[in-house]
Amino acid sequence: MANYNKVILIGNLTRDPQVRQVGGKSIAEIGLAINNTWFDKASNSKKEDTTFVDVTLWGKTAELAGRYLTKGKSVMITGRLKLDTWDDKTTGQKRSKMTVVGEEMQFLGGGTQAARGGTQEAPSEPHVPDDTFPPDDVPF
Fold it and tell me: Are 65 and 103 in contact (CB under 8 A)?
């Protein structure tokens, strides 16, 4: 049987990225808040809930996140689900947590450019035209 593990998330950062180096590779941990709104006919009102997701980014993508993302910024992450399991040191119980390993990242809003998988350059300054020629002195 074939398997497929892919998620696409769009949300806002819940905190500034936490970037660290492990074995010469950059790793960034980010938290996303993803809002869902709907209209509840029973109460005749708009409802909203928020899902919080932890995302791990690697390499150039992690570096770009650390450099350009801050709490509250919107971002789209494409990646895969990963289940982390461990033994709680204080209680001895088995613990688990579902996280996302980010494979591609795109900055949203604010006029920034995309950074897909760390392959594109980071946002640059906007181009400002050079108005050094007076209107009557156009060279063509």
Answer: no
CA distance 140 to 134: 13
Report which of residues 116 and 67 the model is more confident about. 67
Report the greatest alpha carbon distance in the chain: 81
Nearest to 37 by CA among 48, 26, 29: 48
Give 62's DSSP letter: H
Q: 117: alpha, beta or left, given left = phi > 0 and alpha = psi -120 to 50?
A: left
Q: In a 3-state reduction of DSSP, which class is residue 77?
A: strand
Which CATH architecture fits 1-36+48-82? Beta Barrel (2.40)
Q: pLDDT tens, 34-93?
A: 999 999 999 999 999 999 999 999 999 999 999 999 999 999 999 999 999 999 999 989
Prediction pTM value: 0.72
Q: Which of 81, 80, 60, 74 lies closest to 106, judged by CA?
A: 74
